[in-house]
Amino acid sequence: MTGRRDTTGSAGSRLLGVSALVGVAVLLLFAFVLTDPDVRVHPTTGEEFGQFDAVRLLYLHVPMAVLTYAAYILCAAASVGYLVRRTPWWDVTAYAAAEVGTVFCGLVLVTGSIWGRPVWNTWWEWGDVRLMTTLVLFLLFLGYLALRRTTVDPRHQARRAAVVALVAVLDIPLVNRSVEWWENRTLHQQSTLAELKIQDLTLFTLMLGFVVFGLVAAWLLLHRFRVGWLEQAAAEHGVAMAIAERHAELDMPDVDAAVGDAGDGP
User: Fold this and answer.
1) Is 164 exposed, middle or buried (0-12, 13-18, 19+ CB in 10 A)?
2) For 36-47, how does the pLDDT look when each residue is reduced to its tens digit (9 = 90+)?
3) What pTM, to 2 d.p., does this model score?
């Protein structure tokens, strides 16, 4: 008889993964082939200006930034759930969301630097408040993940991590509103989507980017949650086995004594 094999895959997760993979391929086709570059003409001089092909990173960079916010907010919400309910489900959810959010946040920083090089003529600007607040957010959650790896009592570790997540997530409003609150201290432009300056195929491709990266984030989150749940179950099983072994060791002298007494019979 073959035992059940623990796995993070299922029919639903495989369908989600295939959908995400196909979506990424379609998004790349629209972003780098079908959409037009950002080319504008000066009304008086007739000179061409704009972001040209660099604007194509818009379809990757912006959706990943929004998914970063969503993952970290989910982490904070699950952290509150753990502090209130003290159940493993909330803790594993918070941990999974933090890891996925940190992956996306790192990609946001990388794609932003690549985008900034041709547009701003620099890979990184230390005085830019949007860049710096995003970097702080990334480092805060790296600290959260490092804390989760410390070898302490899992319950104490989960409580401390939940508090760190609730503090770290406070940086999100600063990241999001920095270009409005400190407009003279950033190279980033203010939102054009809110003012409907993005239209037609550009708007469609950007919306497609949100859907596709949403699927990717959901797939990653699902599998990371299942891995975390298996780790939780393995840890609990290990503790139970250790307790059972300890009980067996404590009972062993009594058994030996009983055997010895039986051997001393008449």
Assistant:
1) buried
2) 998 877 888 878
3) 0.85
